[in-house]
Amino acid sequence: MSAKVRLKKLEQLLLDGHQKNASSLSVETLLDILICLYNECSSSPLKREKHVTEFLEWGELLSAGLCVMMMAIDCISP
Questions:
Q1: Membrane spanning segments where (predicted)?
Q2: Is the pLDDT assigned to residue 77 strictly greater than 70?
Q3: What pLDDT shows up at residue 78?
Q4: Which residues, 6 or more positions from 55, have their beta carbon under 8 angstroms from its beta carbon?
Q5: Sequence ranges of the domains in the chain
Q6: pLDDT digit string (tens) for 6-44?
Q7: Rounded (5°) CA angle 24-37-40
Q8: 59 pLDDT exceeds 80?
C-alpha cells in the first residue's frame, strides 16, 4: 500500500470520527499519544539517535503549544 493511500485512509478515519468507526481514535487521543511519545523520547538514551533527534526538534514547539492549549481547555471545561 502506497504512502498516499495510507494517508488517505488515515484522513478518512479522522474525518469520519468515532461515531462511524468504533475502532478509530479521536484527535485528542492522537495528540495525547504524540505528546507522550515526545516526552518518552526526550528522556530516553535514544535521543542521541538521528531520527529521534529530528523528531524531538520537530515536536518541541508542537508539544509545548499542545500542552498549553490542552491546559486552557481543561480550565474552561465544566
A1: none
A2: no
A3: 55
A4: 38, 41
A5: 3-76
A6: 888 878 877 776 667 676 677 778 888 888 888 889 888
A7: 150
A8: yes
Evaluate the CA torsion angle 47, 59, 70, 34 in order and state its sign: negative
Distance of CA 27 to the CA centre of its chain: 8
Compute the distance between CA of residue 32 and CA of residue 73 in angstroms, rounded to an integer: 14
Question: Cα angle at 19 between 15 and 22, to 5 degrees?
Answer: 100
Closest CA to 59 of 26, 27, 29, 36: 36
| Distance (Å, whole) CA 13 – CA 30 | 12
Write out the three cell numbers for 65. 503549544
Q: Name the CATH architecture for the domain at 3-76.
A: 2-Layer Sandwich (3.30)
Report the predicted TM-score, pTM, of the whole model to 2 decimal places: 0.59
